[in-house]
Amino acid sequence: MIEWVDKEKVFKDPVHDYIYVQDRLIWDLINTRAFQRLRRVKQLGTSFLTYHGAEHSRFTHSLGTYETMRKVLSHFDRNFGWPSDDRMRLLALCAALLHDIGHGPFSHTVESVFQFHHETWTQRILIEDPEVSRILMRVDEDFPQDVADVIAKKDKFPLVVKLISSQLDVDRMDYLLRDALNTGVTYGTFELERLIRVMRPEGNDVVVKKSGMKTVEQYILARYFMYSQVYLHPVTVGSDVLLRHVVSRVKKLWDRGDAVYLVDELKPFLSRKADEISVAEYLELDEGVMNYTLQRWTRAEDPILRDLSDRFVNRRLFGSVDTRELKEVERQTIREMFRANGLNPDYYLSFQTATTGGYHMYKQGIKLVEESGRLLDDISKYSGLVRSLQPESKFRIFCPKEVLRGEGKYKPIRGWLDALRD
Amino acid sequence: MIEWVDKEKVFKDPVHDYIYVQDRLIWDLINTRAFQRLRRVKQLGTSFLTYHGAEHSRFTHSLGTYETMRKVLSHFDRNFGWPSDDRMRLLALCAALLHDIGHGPFSHTVESVFQFHHETWTQRILIEDPEVSRILMRVDEDFPQDVADVIAKKDKFPLVVKLISSQLDVDRMDYLLRDALNTGVTYGTFELERLIRVMRPEGNDVVVKKSGMKTVEQYILARYFMYSQVYLHPVTVGSDVLLRHVVSRVKKLWDRGDAVYLVDELKPFLSRKADEISVAEYLELDEGVMNYTLQRWTRAEDPILRDLSDRFVNRRLFGSVDTRELKEVERQTIREMFRANGLNPDYYLSFQTATTGGYHMYKQGIKLVEESGRLLDDISKYSGLVRSLQPESKFRIFCPKEVLRGEGKYKPIRGWLDALRD
Amino acid sequence: MIEWVDKEKVFKDPVHDYIYVQDRLIWDLINTRAFQRLRRVKQLGTSFLTYHGAEHSRFTHSLGTYETMRKVLSHFDRNFGWPSDDRMRLLALCAALLHDIGHGPFSHTVESVFQFHHETWTQRILIEDPEVSRILMRVDEDFPQDVADVIAKKDKFPLVVKLISSQLDVDRMDYLLRDALNTGVTYGTFELERLIRVMRPEGNDVVVKKSGMKTVEQYILARYFMYSQVYLHPVTVGSDVLLRHVVSRVKKLWDRGDAVYLVDELKPFLSRKADEISVAEYLELDEGVMNYTLQRWTRAEDPILRDLSDRFVNRRLFGSVDTRELKEVERQTIREMFRANGLNPDYYLSFQTATTGGYHMYKQGIKLVEESGRLLDDISKYSGLVRSLQPESKFRIFCPKEVLRGEGKYKPIRGWLDALRD
Amino acid sequence: MIEWVDKEKVFKDPVHDYIYVQDRLIWDLINTRAFQRLRRVKQLGTSFLTYHGAEHSRFTHSLGTYETMRKVLSHFDRNFGWPSDDRMRLLALCAALLHDIGHGPFSHTVESVFQFHHETWTQRILIEDPEVSRILMRVDEDFPQDVADVIAKKDKFPLVVKLISSQLDVDRMDYLLRDALNTGVTYGTFELERLIRVMRPEGNDVVVKKSGMKTVEQYILARYFMYSQVYLHPVTVGSDVLLRHVVSRVKKLWDRGDAVYLVDELKPFLSRKADEISVAEYLELDEGVMNYTLQRWTRAEDPILRDLSDRFVNRRLFGSVDTRELKEVERQTIREMFRANGLNPDYYLSFQTATTGGYHMYKQGIKLVEESGRLLDDISKYSGLVRSLQPESKFRIFCPKEVLRGEGKYKPIRGWLDALRD
């Protein structure tokens, strides 16, 4: 079943030094249109507006996830004889490589307006994209569906699912290191090589040697720090809010039949539901489309769309203020104040609760195992540090900075906000 | 004249750790539309198709060039009392920050078809863009022109010109380190801090302490290696060729009145000469526009445009073969063979001579100076290594890979090419 | 009062890139015999037997501590105008540079047998070593005592004391980064530059901006990880035990008048109390002396000394087993079993409780401060992560590996130990 | 023949991240007394007096050389099926691990006085040390001699010799990276992984793919820069001169029967020739012995020995001045001036010519090979950069700094030296 590439292929990579490809299947998947499109989707969405280095794409992260899986499998094979068959190995590698293939531009933001989910698209692409599915079918007819099922976290291949999507998965291992490198922070750093060395397959689970507990803690904390310092940075959240408002405004204008500049590629997403959109149509959506259209909207007729787009494109971002969580009646009052001052609160105001993840056993926790092979309990039973990682919520109000500064007519709003400050 | 920002502002940077901004002038320039647009222009054009990590923008490099200049000025100020006035300091900082502001998407490639030069646009933007020029004019009325003159390498501020554009300039110092980091190679590494420490202002020149000669050699070699291993990588050159052919094809279609999809932003560049295009029009050109249009062209009616665009967007790049330099008559023969096989040689064939830079004294060489202050000759007089860096040329033929592999009807062409191989 | 060195001096450093010296006072202190002796004392004692890269000396760490202090002071001076006088600045720099000058070879181990404390020696050297004290007195007559008082954590200069020795001190900042680099682990990594940026002097305290809380957490965790993964690594603790037993054995032999090889430099420490030993005598003690003598003892007549020394020098280290904490009667039983099998338990057995530090408010905690300047409570009030860092104890039994493996006659002991295993 | 260790063993390493040991043979060799002794010999001799970070031992470098060989063999095995037998693999690994086992403290300096060569000792230890030779003989009776022959560059295993000792050997690959990391410079950086990837076995030679030529250049230049910036740094050479003079003085005193403190371990080297000294005696020589004795000599009766030792131990090093190469008569004049001023020129003056290596074909040059397998000529035929690396000589006079500064009675000497300055 394995078709080797003639010669080992390599990609030079800033995180792993080299990414090694030995299977023709992997090589051919990388060269599909659907996979190359990931070069045109940023890994961290709007984060580059906070950390200017965050300009890397989902393409580089997907290659890195594949490589991390390759390393894990090599360790498992060398030391525990798993996987015993080549199909399982390819399943794990393909799932790692393709796990993000359904991501669109600024996914998290755009999806919430268009109401679809990149996970669904990933699965559809694996099965419906003729180029990708044909390559996967070279393994066998069921293979595309099996890869899709792994990504859907179905039960059939629990160990592979665990490696792709759990508290200890290759996806996270790569993105923490890669996002840290590109943003220029050390928060995401951890001992990758050692982490892999203390992992072992155990029935349907991946467990960790007890002597490696601190290495797992370091990795769990890398995620904690990256969330608070990078992924949920208020400037980034504010950029997301702004972009979401832009897209909502467009949708509003379109829905009520107002003129709005739209390239053909965007129209399906405004007129049809996700399941009425074809994979081919979906794959045309990338940051080229979004960035170009955003640029155009900076000259839109509608003053709200024009202003919001201009703020986003030219980085006049919303600011934020931390407050206690507001009651609906309080929110309503603020909305009214905005409206009274000529700012439509649907577009110029947002209440956001940012919640960091914490560590959850029920979200595929991490079990420890003794040197002797005796299975122990979840790491949270042994590590006070891990237990301390409870989800944390922050409530913030986002709006234009001139309002926050209390310029001119906004002075009273500022007074109000000051009173709510956390 | 100096307006300090209220508090020292910093940008987290993967190369310099932090970029420090103390002047409100700099802060405001960074926040202009024209400067923010650099986020939408990749620093290395098509290099990401060879080194997937090369996705960083000219925005990050421009900040890094500014920071490197800031470090050089701090060393010069601390140890040699230069610059003595604040205007000169700001001139150097602004020129460093803005030196690439005129770059467009895939500049080197697109410029050659549209026949304009980013240097010219840089100068025009400084003077004609209302937002940028107004900020610069806060120093004084002549300031925008002076910054433009520095970028045009005019004589008025020779020391600043030297620092911005010479064999030993802050532009190169930043891009070598940044491009190396992002591509994941060590070729561009050198001792930045020490290099700065051995530099000193000397009249109108920047000279280097003789004891630092090896550090300068390391820096000169960093450039040598980056050129051969990254900037002139045949896969990258082949991508440039392909993109240039796409744009030429579009121009051809437009010139002869054929239908071709064109967004408004591109039309001026096809219908008018550079000096008839306004700065505002120019600033609308970014990679959003280019990437979106390229995507559209993959569905063009014209088969050549459609095919070439598809190759570029989906990375079915041209391959290359190294040959001896061909005579015109030989080139003509190959062109004919292509045509005979149904490949228009204007679009499917390219003869390229890649020339690495070498070291030139007359291109603002680097003079040494003794500890005692005695000026010595150019470094090339003392360093055999530097002297060995003569420009090197490589002749290569670029065309589709199926031709190179001699598939089907292309077998005879392949035979011909093999005979020419270097 | 300040005497500048003619030209800025620099040391190339693997952690800080460059260490900058501008004051002649600092330069002259570095060149004293007492300070140069730190080159012959390893920073991490016996850790090199676990992590082979841990071969760096207290000399390099002392320079690094000085440099970190220099950076903190530069930030404090630039942004908060502290310290206002040059004497205070020099006091902080000298205390940072000299804080470890009293360390001897394998201090923690050797001190416990010889019963003295390196802190005491540090203070005595500052005042009694003619070369060091004469240089310090160039500031003024009280200066040596003031530096000594800072190291003794006396009240007079609370802010400087805080910077040298607290939960947030320059000593720890340098050693975490340096020990991590040399051992090759990432556990000690944190954002030094940002940590310094969020620190500010506040009356007699150093406080941290609340927005920098996560950066402080990262730094506190760096210590947590380094303790568990490096400093308290059981192989290192076992090496310490072994070395301590060697020295105890020598003391025993000496005390009872048995022949034992001793170089002159060691004799005072066996025959006199610490306060009867002169600073000049103390400064002769370094790792040259210890290593040479250990080598000699591998050929000692006394079989116990010979065997233990050989184990240490040639790395046949003690192994360990984790057990629950044992009662005295259980310990006694094990001691007897060792004795019954021909192993003197005073030298071949050790019960050790390793306790990691945790975070203590009362050990100079870290207060937060709002952007507005409003002082908040200790970080532990806000950070669940910091609160989770309680001191942790591990109980371990150390003895020769052949015993642990249950070789030959040691089989019954092994059975006993297995029953106690944690 | 292969005895695997029960579980893959690893060493955490600052250069290679992990060093992997799978063979029990290697594991047992690492644990020999002779190999552990390398922990007590610094890799860079007196360089730590110039670059304070250069405190790493030959032990760490030996492990790193082994690991680099392991990587090369893995690549050769995966891609070219070499070595075909396990004995050859072990031969290469053992030779790499043990290539420096004969090094003594400050070898290059001490050897020149005692007139022996570490290469000879390496070979003798492999065969004569009972512990080492017994382990090696587990392979077969001839194995110790074969390893010794590889180190002696005998013809029998040319490919292994090439990998251990040539222009492209694993020894150099490790030390460049390791010395660079520890000194904190980037001069020794090169693309290790890629360098290995472009190497291939070709008959009795190791050749390099032509497409990897620039990577080889980078590696050759890493050596060039490390020699000029680190290994031949005048402060280091001056330290070597000083140490050599100390040892010569001791030898002189001993030879003429004067009292001089000497530990037993040193006596054989003063009274007997190298071939009359046993391996056991030799292995007692380490930096513990040297450092301790040097310390003692700072209190020697002989004023010259006392003064020189004190200068070395407490870093009052000799300074140097670059001059043109002096004729014997000129040297004689200077010697006389020293003598006239009370400085014995045998101990207070040294004329040194430092020669950097250059690149030599006849010293096991590096041949290129085409993708097709066609062997090409030596790299120097294709690379102007490599050709430019001619050996360079610098002539320098070393003596106490007070003489160079022309203090007091030394003023005339200084005048003379100034006249000779290069």
Q: How would you summarize this macromolecular structure in one to three sentences?
A:
Chains A, B, C, D: One of its GO terms (biological process) is dGTP catabolic process. Four copies of one chain form a homotetramer. With 422 residues, chain A is of the alpha+beta class.
Beta-strand proportion of chain A: 5-15%
Q: Name the chain pair with the biggest interface and residue counts per chain.
A: A-B, 43 and 43 residues
Spans of chain A of at least 5 consecutive residues whose pLDDT stays below 50 are none
CA radius of gyration of chain A is 23 Å
**CATH fold-level topology of the domain at 4-233 in chain A:** Hypothetical protein af1432
CATH class of the domain at 4-233 in chain A: Mainly Alpha
Query: CATH homologous superfamily name of the domain at 4-233 in chain A?
Result: Hypothetical protein af1432
Count of strand segments of chain A = 9
Spatial gap, N to C terminus of chain A: 61 Å
Shape of chain A: globular
CATH architecture of the domain at 4-233 in chain A: Orthogonal Bundle
Number of helices of chain A: 22
Helix content of chain A: 40-55%
Oligomer: homotetramer
Strand order of the largest sheet of chain A: 3-4-7-8
Protein structure class of chain A: alpha+beta
**Main sheet properties of chain A:** 4 strands, mixed
Domain HD/PDEase (chains A, B, C, D): 54-185
GO molecular function (chains A, B, C, D): dGTPase activity
Protein name (chains A, B, C, D): HD/PDEase domain-containing protein
Organism (chains A, B, C, D): Tumebacillus avium
